[in-house]
Amino acid sequence: MDSTNAQVTINKGSLVVFVSAVSEQTQSDVLISTLFAQLAADKKFDRENATYDWYRQYNQVLATLGWDGGSFDPRSWESSNDSFTMDEVILEIAAASLTGVQSQAVAAVLKQLTRLPKTDGRLGEFYREAHSQRRGNFQIAVCTELDGLVFLQDMSFIFETEDEVTDLLSFRFSSGKTKMQTAVQARTLNLQLFAMSRDTTVRKLGGNIASFTRPLHL
Is the pTM of the predicted complex or chain greater than 0.85? Predict the structure, then answer.
């Protein structure tokens, strides 16, 4: 894909970007735990219409699985232009909150994703989970592993618009008709703690792992 050697996986309403040498076991642990938290939050709150409650539940479940991270603190985002695309928003937030290598990895992934033909269909699952016609709540998460420590920069993007959204990443939103919020949460995973609940989590997820988790080989 790029010199960053990034890999990207659809994980329900999230795109998870693995940068550099993240082991297969760690990749699995990250995807399984965050998928479980998304599904648990979905059971209690609507992802698009009760966003704050949804993220509170999401964070609580992640904490029980071994993730440590800050609170959900969304900020309003506004474009200086009459319109914008979601990949422009993502790149701006990534540049402001990630390291150079991480930001480059996100940029490389987005470049490849926006080049996919509409008939490709690989992003269809993510789009269905990430937004409806006029509302959305999705995440771009960047994962790194260093000396046995797992770090996740979890970028959230929440919007409400009068436009009818089609291709999420490349769709051109009208600035005057769209309310946009973003948030970034830095997380670390205690691998030993998660290992204690790994088998139980996998068993509870069952077929949801295959249904919602899909590597994108770009």
Answer: yes
